[in-house]
Amino acid sequence: MVVRNQAVLTARFNKLQADPTDIDAFCQLDGYAGLKKVVEMDKTAVLDELDRAVLLGRGGAAYPAGKKWRHLFYAKGQPKYIVCNADEGEPGTFKDKTLIEHDPLAIIEGMTIAGYMFDSPQGYIYIRGEYRNLHRCLRKALVQARTANFLGENILGITGFNYDIKIISGAGAYVCGESSALLNSIEGKTGRPRVKPPHLADVGLYLQPTLVNNVESYANIPVIIREGGAAFKALGTEKGGGTKLICLTGHVKNRGLFEVNLGTPLYDILYSEKYGGGSSTGRPLKFIHFGGQSGPIGAVAQLKDCLYSYDGLWANNLAIGSGALVVMDDSVSIIDYLNSVAAFFAHESCGKCTPCRIGTLRILEALEKFQKKEAVPGDLEVFESMLTHVTQLSACGLGQSVATSMVSSLKLFPEEFELAINRQTAEQKEVLW
Questions:
Q1: CA nearest 345: which of 354, 357, 333?
Q2: CA-CA-CA-CA torsion for 69, 73, 74, 76, nearest 10 degrees?
Q3: Confidence at residue 102, expressed as pLDDT on a 0 to 100 scale
Q4: CA–CA separation, 51 and 110 (whole Å)
Q5: pLDDT of residue 196
Q6: CA separation (Å) from 313 to 23, 193, 266, 414?
Q7: CA dihedral 238, 240, 243, 244 (to 10 degrees)
Q8: pLDDT of amino acid 86
């Protein structure tokens, strides 16, 4: 039974410490109870439970998992493929890595439930290139699952329930965290985003209907099936059920991975000893970068009553994203910080579309000018126009989210940009590009 303020996704971490791939120990801790239950259920009832749970995708986009599964369920065509997005590339995010390290069978069970639901023969775990050290753990967990007949042919003795999972390693490109680029990479093509529509649930891997979910999303599936959608939803809020793995870094005393109920006060996460423990430097906390480099920035002083939930953050023009919270104190210049964000995007742009390929470089150059206090009147307007162009004209989510942190920072800390402008020099007129 799951209850608020108790670990759900991390509940087995310490108990499986000796060997996270030990399938007997996993089964003694409710492992595969979800799979055993789902094969006794009507498949449409399973979809109803997912809707009831209000599980929003944990990769960053927060798309309702129930809606995504229902779309694939009614999509025409076979075979259907199951893909786990373990290309965890957002700086400051390490929750998927930790799940794979400490409870890999939970992810495999969630993917196997998906395999059963969609009569899929094959699943793929696409893992980021920098996580090669986790391959052995995943491979061992897959072998354990096959040996115990939780993967392979006639799973659980059910004739025709044939399903297996392969591991595919990425090469370290951030853009492959985008679902269609990830599928291209699995197919051996250049990891660049596809034009959508068609939706991946209709035309996905090898042009077949495909489900792509994040590591944490799959780990939640057995919990929902085992405990029921209503119980899962009760762990969170009306607009988003369950718990969330968060990655706290920066100027807080206690940095690391935490599991919180959605709806936990943000100030508790920052200042309570159970979580962040307050400032590590003794200086006031200034801002939080939510959900990775593609997420928005919030001013700590303005978020006293904010709840850490999807709806709570949306109400403040913020987002949970990947679950990263990079916390900075008041010694950090927002322009210095944004420079590192812009450098990341300029490096990671795949180069497919011009607005992103060129725009990320121009944004970085503009921020370097602000950083050196060499900006002249008119530069701020040009900078804001570039942010709009790159957001509106880029082909995929990477380019479209480059400006998110910068737009929010311009609203929160306009004085820092103003101080970077030398008002004694001639005005710079915008040059359209």
A1: 357
A2: 120
A3: 97
A4: 16
A5: 85
A6: 38, 28, 9, 22
A7: -140
A8: 97
Instruction: Supply the pLDDT for residue 92.
Output: 95
Residue ranges in the chain modelled with pLDDT below 70:
426-433
- Sorted by sequence, the CB contacts under 8 Å of residue 379 that are 6+ apart come out as 366, 369, 370, 421, 428
- Distant-in-sequence, close-in-space partners of 308: CB < 8 Å, separation ≥ 6: 244, 246, 260, 262, 263, 264, 265, 266, 269, 320
Question: Which amino acid belongs to residue 132?
Answer: R
Residue 270 tokens read as 């920052």
What angle, 0 to 180 degrees and rounded to 10, lies between the N-to-C axes of helices 104-117 and 65-74? 40
Element counts in the chain: helices (H) and strands (E): 18, 11
End-to-end CA distance of the chain: 58
Place of tokens 């957001």: 391
pLDDT in tens, 80-115: 999 999 999 999 999 999 999 999 999 999 999 999
Q: What is the pLDDT of residue 361?
A: 96
Per-residue confidence (pLDDT) for residue 349, from 0 to 100: 94
